[in-house]
Every structure is written in structure tokens, then in C-alpha cells.
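Field notebook, page 470. I keep forgetting to write these up properly, so this time I am using the form the group agreed on. The chain and the ligand, fe (ii) ion, are recorded exactly as supplied. Prediction of the bound pose follows.
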Amino acid sequence: MHRLHSLALGAVTALALVAGSAQAASLSREPYLQRVGTDSATVAFRLSASCAPTVYYGTHGSTDQRVTAPNPATKHAVELSGLEPGTAYTYVVDACGARTNPVTFSTASKPGVRRVHFTTVGDFGSNSDDQKQVARAMLGRAPELFLALGDNAYESGTEAEFQRNLFEPMAPLLAQVPFFAVPGNHEYETNQGQPYFDNLYLPTSSTGGESYYSFDWGFVHFVAIDSSCALGLAPSSRCTPAAQRQWVEEDLAASTAPWKIAFMHYPPWSSGEHGSQPNIRKQFAPLFEEYGVDLVLTGHDHDYERSQPMKGDAVAASGTRAPVYLVVGSGGAGLRDMSTSSKPSWSVLRNNGDHGYLDVKAEDGTLTAQMLTPSGKVMDSFTLTKELPPEPEPPPATADETTPTPGQPDPAPTPAPSPSPSGGTNPLPTGAETAEDLGPTAAGCSAGPAMALLPGAILVFAGALRRRRR
Ligand SMILES: [Fe+2]
């Protein structure tokens, strides 16, 4: 055969092979947003065949920028860098012939921005219809971020279960809402949580890597705790209880954010099936109290429960500032019986009759949380308040300044909140208009009207009737 002809045939063959492999590639796992910060974001996904994909992205709905993975592979986590804070970005994954539909997310707003909206829930990773409905409802709220409270992939957190019980049923949410997770006990059943760490791309801490970490989103400081590690279940090479506790203390002490929220799987306070975890409480409650954590978000028990503001092993004295503990374990696994027939005195409200999620909005000195079912029924509603110093005036615009980037405002960093005269949070000024509480309410924590619609005793009986095991 003539050499030139041979080369041409070879080129055609090579092109055919390339085209063939391109056609063979598809996304075996839809994109999910990880490690989203003020100036970067990771778009992770999996492919059915090895190739070097490109992520196209941009603002204002365009996708005029691109990052191409350096090497062919089936497992990808492509980092977008040089992003603007608090800004909407649209992205598309182009993987050798497979191209996703454009979707949009927002980067984290700067630490001084006094408006943050997030949703959270745990105990969902079951591929159940309830999980899908909860995820769909959360996406409908258009939160900036989503906190996953553990038991993200039943039954044992295997690689296959992460695919089937987390990424597939929650794909639309995870493609558009950055999510930050903590591991549950079920993830720890496989190789001490290794598939969890293999599949997620989380912020890291100096001593614990991805096991525990913190990040700021606007004026909220979030601290993620590995409660299985706290119980001594992690390999010491990854995480030890002592190192984690020390890091949490140093991290909280260093934060000047006006709002501080901790999240982990095991609940320090719960009257659900498994009950309170005194070991976890002993390790972290003193830190939460000393460094002004406002909310502690947990799961594990398959119900919803809200505590009074708690100090030590008791309800905090009226008028003092103390953390409120929530169990939000109603994300999709079967709901469970409570461990006590009547509501403990420290418990404000509990519900094991509905699946649902928590929707939280912090704006200036007011944090408003709603526990919602997928159909929009409000299971619980409460507000925390505190005094913040006046927001600094933005500097006057100069003549050569260009039009600001769309997104959230960009004020100067917010100083730490000034203590109220009592040293605690302040009562909700409008509480008398909205609250019809079921028990004593500490300063700074007011219940909304929905609580009156769902008395705890009725909820317990409703839950007992639908007893299911997971
Ligand atoms: Fe659990």
C-alpha cells in the first residue's frame, strides 16, 4: 500500500476510534458541586469511559470560560478557580460527546455579607420516594448551600450505595446547590468511612483533613464535626477524638462571625429512638457554649426535634445565651418511634410523623428556621435574634469604577456581635404576635405559629402508628 494512503487510512482509523470512544462516554454520575467557596468551586462527576472532559462555565448565563481535565479518567473533580464571590455561575460538562444541560449555582458570599440561606437534613440516603421528594422540595427553595447531616448512603456506605442512594436520587439538587457533609454511622460501616471520603470533596482542617472542617458563608461560620470519630471509631491516622476536639475549640475561638452553626450526625440532645449521646455532649457542649455557637444541627434519630437553649446538662436559665440543638433526621429513611412517650422538659417540639427538611435564613441579627414537609407544611418554625453593630456604609463609588458584578452586596467584613446587656440573645420583638409556645421559651428563641398546629403528644402517637425500621 502506498505510504501516504496508509497514513491517511491510519488517520481515519484513529479518528474513528476517537469518535467511537467519544460516543461511548456518558456521565455515569451527574455533576455535583463540592468545595464551593468565594472564589472557587469543584464540579465532580463520573464517566462511563475514560476521557478528558471540559467544564464550560461563566456568568450571566454564558459558558464562555473553560477548564479541561489534565488526564483521561472516569472519575473527575474539576476545579473552577478565579471566581467572584456571591455570584451566579452557569456550567456545562462536556465529556467526549456527552454534554449536560446548563445549570446554575452561586459561589459563597464574602464573610461580611449579612444574608445567608441554606437547607439541611440527615438520614436520607435510601433511594426512597420520601428522599426524592425532600430533595426536590429543598431545590425548590433555592438555597445557597445544603448541609448533609450523615447517613447519606445506606445501608453501609459502599461505593455502589453512594451512587444508588445519594447521587442518583438527589442529582438535580446536588448539581445546583453546593453541599457540605458529615459522615453518619452507616457510612462508617464500610472500611471506616473510606467510600465517603473517596466520593466527596470537602474542605479540610489542619489536623483532620476532610473528617472535620469549617468554612464561612457570608456572615455564618459553619463547623463540621465527625461524630463517629468523636466516639473513637475512626482510624487514628485519619482522626482522633482529642485532636478533633482541640481543633474545634481553636476554630471556634478564632471565628469572629456573628452566627456560628455546628453540624454532625450524632445528637447531643434527642428523645428519639437512640436518644441523647452524652459522650458527644460532654466533648462539645462546653465549647459550643463558651464560643457562642447558636445552632447545633444533627441527625441519627429518624424524626425532628428542637431543644430549648441548653447549658451543660440542663435547660439554660432564661435570658442567657445558649445553643439550640436540633435533630433533623427525617430526610428519607423510615421514621421511627420516639424513646419516651411524653416529651422531655428540655424538648420544645418533636415530630416523627412527617419527612421533611430544615430551611434556614440568617439576615442581620435574625435567624429564621422552618421545618418543612415536601408539600410545604410547616412542622416547626422558630427565630433566634441577636444585636449586630450597624452595617458599615459601603465606600462611595469612584468615577472609574465599573458596574458591580451581579450577586449579593459586598459590604466590609462584619465585626463580631456586641453582647446584649444580659450577655445573651435578644427576645424576638414580634414574638407576642406569632408565638404560641408549648413550653418555656428562653430569650432569643421564639416559636412560630406552626408549633401550635402540631402538638408534640399528637405527633408521637402519629409516629407510633407508622412504625418502620431502618
Ligand atoms: Fe445514624
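OBSERVATIONS:
- Confidence is low (pLDDT under 50) at residues 1-23, 402-470.
- The longest strand covers residues 40-51.
FOLLOW-UP: compare against the apo run.
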